[in-house]
Amino acid sequence: MKIKIYDTTLRDGSQAEGISFSLEDKLRIAARLDRFGIDYIEGGWPYSNPKDITFFERIRETPLKHARVAAFGSTRRARLSAEDDPNLRMLVASGAPVITIFGKSWDLHVIEALRVTREQNLEMIADSVRFLKAHAEEVIYDAEHFFDGYRSDPEYALATLTAAAEAGADCLVLCDTNGGSLPNQVAEAIQAVRDHVRVPIGIHAHNDSETAVANSIVAVQFGAVHVQGTMNGIGERCGNANLCSVIPSLELKLGLETIGRERLRELTEVSHFIDEVANLTPNDRQPFVGRSAFAHKGGVHADAVLKLGSTYEHLAPETVGNKRKILVSELAGGSAVRHKAEQFGVDLTKDSPITRAILDQVVRLENKGYSYEGAEGSLELLIRKAQGEYEKTFDLISFRVIIEKRAGDEEPITEATLKLRVNGEVAHTVAEGDGPVHALDNAMRKALQQFFPHLAHMRLTDFKVRVVNVREGTAAKVRVLVETTDAQETWNTVGVSTNIIEASWQALVDAVDYAMMRERRPRNGN
């Protein structure tokens, strides 16, 4: 059975705190969702702002291969006819083939928010749907607050659906607008709706009770054939039903057709694309598409999953475009170390003395505050050192960092002086930077480039600090993670110390050693 997927990232998603899509952002997202196989793309509310009006003008010039574009709005105002209502006229003027309007299903909203009679509300719903149906190819009616309305007055909530259905609505979407419903309440209400109307039913769930995905799946199990949501679950307050979880659940768990299993392999890439355009950091722990969704840290788990994925994975990560991660930590076993070494092009056996030594070293260092889960550059160096494959790049003679704040200057001046011994020669350099770590990084690369020109392409791209033992206050250890790139590859390294500059220096040294190791011995791993 085909379940239609209705994406409202561009409208509901844009209502999330901290998110603001530009016009070009919206057009890029719409084009990507179309290629992904989404059935409906809700572009926005043209009556609410000029940007959405322009979006509908521009999207008409964009050749979409699959998706139908929907314009969103509300039912007519109480004191206007449908023909004279500017909101409805703007929806028609948008040229969208699909128009979605919402109306009130909850008697509380009818009386307290709209301040009209129950009968007037029914007339507003019917008039609006009837008018739009005469001008659009498809009209979808969103029954706002339906589940709250059904719990308050089932008879009246159902009457609002009847008004929309008899006026010609093509689909009745039941909305859990406040996000407070539980799956059993959704199931009960949908059963009642199916007995009451013959129009296709949809679901629009918000996530205020962390049940939006579950409610969407239950709704389909009880008869809904249309699911609304957003990519990555972004939306107002706690967000909307996360289509990155709904789609694979319907396809892979219930065996229903949504976008098709081949396109499902693009899910992780599309999820990250949306986050990138929205300027959001991807949620590593997001189900299905997060970087940690198929990450295994425990030794028993890692050993078993390397033998058979289904032992600790509910589905193969490749089916949703993700990949498995085996983490090496104090909880890991020999299988995890062997697997990571294999990725780095190092041949180890699970029970070899070198494998055991690596594990012991990881346990010892993690007890001091190190963590290698996000620092695989440092982990590879550790493994290669155990193999006897490590060559030291330089010896530190000394470094000094000076930070000077002058009255009237907006930013302090930071200068690093560094003295190294490289191949028996002493390199003495001075460099400025935007802070002590940046200055040290600049000074180190300046000193080394005369010996190793390829290091000129290296640059620092991220810097994170984490306090390890917070109870020690200002004397606590800090863990520094550094991300470095040379335009071909990106790697992460780690350092730990009670002194943030020393911890940063350790991570920077590992970053250079990693670059040199890769230059001397090309990697065979992933």
Description of the structure:
- Helix 6 packs across helix 7, helix 9 packs parallel to helix 10 (243-253) and helix 16 packs across helix 18.
- This protein has an eight-stranded parallel beta barrel, surrounded by ten helices. Strands 11-12-13 form a three-stranded antiparallel beta sheet, covered by helices on one side. Strands 14-15-16 form a three-stranded antiparallel beta sheet.
- The protein contains 18 helices and 16 strands.
- Strand 3, helix 3 (86-93) and strand 4 (98-104) form a beta-alpha-beta unit.
- The protein is elongated, with a radius of gyration of 29 Å.
- It is 39% helix and 20% strand.
- The longest helix is centred in the last third of the chain and has 21 residues, at 500-520.
- It starts with a strand and ends in a 6-residue tail after the last helix.
- The chain has three domains: 4-278, TIM Barrel; 295-367, no CATH class; 395-520, 2-Layer Sandwich (Double Stranded RNA Binding Domain), CATH 3.30.160.
- The chain has 526 residues and is an alpha/beta fold.
